[in-house]
Amino acid sequence: MLQDTGKEPRIGVYVCHCGLNIAGVVDVEAVRESARFLEGVVVVRDNRYTCSEVGQKGIADDIREFKLNRVVVASCSPRLHEKTFRTLLEKSGLNPHLLEMANIREHCSWVHYDNHEAATGKAKDLVRSSVARARLLQPLARTKGRVLPEVMVIGGGVAGISAALYLGGMGIKTYLVEKEPSIGGHMAMLDKTFPTLDCSLCILSPKMVEVAECENIKILSYSEVEKVEGQVGDFRVQVRRKPRYVNEEKCVGCGDCAEKCPVKVKDEFNRNMGTRKAIYIPFPQAIPPAYVIDEHNCRYLTQGKCKICQAVCERGAIEYDQTSYVETIEVGAIIVATGFQPYDPRGLPQYGYGRFPNVITSLDFERLICADGPTYGKLKRPGDSTVPKRVAFIQCVGSRNEASGGAEYKIDIDEEMGSSAGSRDPKAYCSRVCCMITAKQAFMVKEKYPDAEVYVYYIDMRTAGKGFEEFYQRGRHEGIVFLRGKPGEIEEQEDGCLRVVSEDLDSGCILDLVFDMVVLAQGLTPPEGLVEFAQKMNLSRSEDGFLMEGHPKLRPAETAIDGIYLAGCVQFPKDIPDSVAQAGAAAAAAAVMCSKESIEIDPLGPVIDDKLCIGCKLCEMLCPYGAIKVELTDKGPKAKSIEVACKGCGVCGASCSTKAITMKHYTDSQLTAQAKAILEVV
To answer: What's the pLDDT score for residue 405?
Structure first.
């Protein structure tokens, strides 16, 4: 049973050393002594590690001995350990919301590391203000919400497939949503994987089939999420099902339709280096194994004539009358695994991609070298189909580079790209996987063509992973030449060969070399449409444009929105093993959520006074979590709080012009007392 706070505040203050994270800059003893005489404080202590078992036991003992009814912890960010101390209070018989934390690590020692006196003074001020607020804290009661035991995984790449299989294996109904006609993602486009050089689809294809055969997994291919409503345990997701114009149940993938189809277009799966028909299957191992009609190139759908595919299909699988429709699915948790998109090197025109046919990207290379690619595994120059004898790889194209290319190209490239130019801007971050991709591809060239000369231009070789460094060194022993230096420009010669000039930083020499083919190691960028998708999901993005995790160390697979989890490259570039590992973590977290009969919800939401509310909808428009809706009542339009979705951010209360909204746990009186205390001159 929770202890009542009583009439008089009895506050315990605990100042943490955090090893030397705080104590190395802040005079912890001075902060402790300054808090001793604050109103309502009955005990003050400092601990080396307050979050440790010893530190927590000391707080629990003091709650019993001194009959504490409020606790102030001066330590690190509440984001890290607020839950820890709230749980401690609850176990000790106190309401968990009678806790206040003063962040004297991030706000003091870490930012004022060069001024110990100022850091200590600021820490004293923060503790004083926290005590002032703690005196006015009131116990709050949690409410319960329902939990639907089903999960949606958005994205059908290797991360999404892995997450769905983990969940399906646990008996949890799972919806796997993929915007393309087939699951598989970018991994399906690869020839081999590093560092073992296993066939990519030999690994992935059995998993794809397993997904299709799992009775607990429903694949929603050629579908996109349009809208997400609700909250943890009870999400309502609107999924747009695009028409395939082919009945998945009837189609057996015989290929008669594609064989007779008269329309040929560029094959996106083969990076536009081959052709496909207007009715096609993306790749032989596609799941679902059904054909799809390209509505933009089909003669019947664009001109009203042809219908050859329908005439030759013996099973009657062609359905031209299919239309797009929206399906609403209710789930308890969502895993976002929408992956990445490769950097478009046209944003760095000095390398000539898109202008010089024999300059290709690392993903182009994968399709060229793949046995079922446009050249059936023979590495040929796109310009003249000859086998290249000298191949150069250039690292960090679009990564670790804040520049946008040479000024002499700027006007032309901006005119060509129009408003999409910003999406091709080089990125400052390291894409992590490019070094090993290049090492793998360079090795594959030497493996297939031992007499070929292979050069790799790099800034640093980053080979952190199991077996990665050994694989890189193996490539060196096979005769691959690694040059520390990044070329400034590529020039095309009359015969289609490419001149590359670069400094070798190890020797100090300027190298002027000519190659038959140049492969650009393109970086990984956030997937197209992620900005709009994040807005639909109310998810935050980090500075690099990817989705932001709940905590970089302790909650890497979670988001700030309870019940929504991350897997794979949508969080940040990572390789296949890391993507699969994170998918497992996300699936485990979602399974824990969906295994509950109900969930407890922190009561941090707004209290709305119907008498003052005028139904202006400003709070509804501004709420980043969709936690307020204005509904028509017998008293007119009134705002209603969806407590289970609320994060207590206070935007609604701050924006309400009629003062109809009061935030629980963050009342005006509490915040005013805190502000006055921090401004107090002592």
So the answer is: 40
Which DSSP symbol is given to 42? E
Looking at residue 627, its amino acid is: A
pLDDT value, residue 559 = 94
Burial of residue 533, with CB atoms counted within 10 A of its CB: 0-12 exposed, 13-18 middle, 19 or more buried: buried
pLDDT at residue number 652? 92
What the block records as the tokens of 232 is: 């943890």
411 burial class (0-12, 13-18, 19+ CB within 10 angstroms)? Answer: exposed
Q: Is 320 within 8 Å of 303 (Cβ atoms)?
A: no
Structure tokens at 341: 């998109």
Nearest Cα residue to 382 out of 273, 276, 272, 275: 273
> DSSP strand E in 516-608: where?
517-522, 524-525, 564-566, 598-601, 606-608
Report helix angle 362-369 to 434-448, nearest 10. 30
Instruction: State the Cα–Cα distance between residues 208 and 162, nearest whole angstrom.
Output: 9
To the nearest 10 degrees (0 to 180), the angle between helices 200-213 and 158-169 is: 40
pLDDT at 310: 96
Count of residues in the chain = 682
The two structure tokens encoding residue 6: 């009583």
Angle at 222 between CA 216 and CA 223, to 5 degrees: 75
d(CA 35, CA 116): 18
> Is 125 buried (19+), middle (13-18) or exposed (0-12) by CB count in 10 A?
buried
Fold (CATH) for 602-664:
Alpha-Beta Plaits (3.30.70)
| β-bridge mates for residue 390, sequence order | 453
Helix axes 576-594, 158-169, angle to 10 degrees: 40
| Phi/psi-derived region of residue 415, left when phi > 0, alpha when psi is between -120 and 50, beta in every other case | alpha
CB 141 within 8 A of CB 604: no
pTM: 0.84
3-state secondary structure 592-634: HHHCCCEEEECCCCEEECCCCCCCCCHHHHHCCCCCEEEEEEC
DSSP assignment, residue 347? G
C-alpha to C-alpha distances, 52 to 16, 23, 553, nearest whole angstrom: 10, 16, 18
Pick the CATH number of 342-524 from 3.50.50.60, 3.40.50.300, 3.40.50.620, 3.40.720.10: 3.50.50.60
pLDDT of residue 406: 38
Local structure of 363: helix, strand or coil: helix
Q: Which two tokens stand for residue 648?
A: 């207590």
pLDDT of residue 402: 66
Query: Position 520: which residue type?
Result: L
pLDDT at 7: 67
Q: Where are the domains of the chain?
A: 11-140, 256-312, 342-524, 602-664
Residue pair 447/194 in contact (Cβ under 8 Å)? The answer is: no
Closest-CA residue to 325 (of 244, 251, 247, 228): 244
> Across the 682 residues of the chain, what is the mean pLDDT of every consecutive 10-residue run?
62 96 97 96 96 96 96 93 94 95 97 96 97 95 89 98 98 98 97 95 97 98 94 93 96 96 96 96 96 97 95 96 97 97 95 96 96 93 95 96 48 36 75 96 95 96 94 94 94 96 92 97 95 92 94 90 95 97 97 92 86 93 87 91 82 92 91 92 71
Fold annotation for 11-140: Rossmann fold (3.40.50)
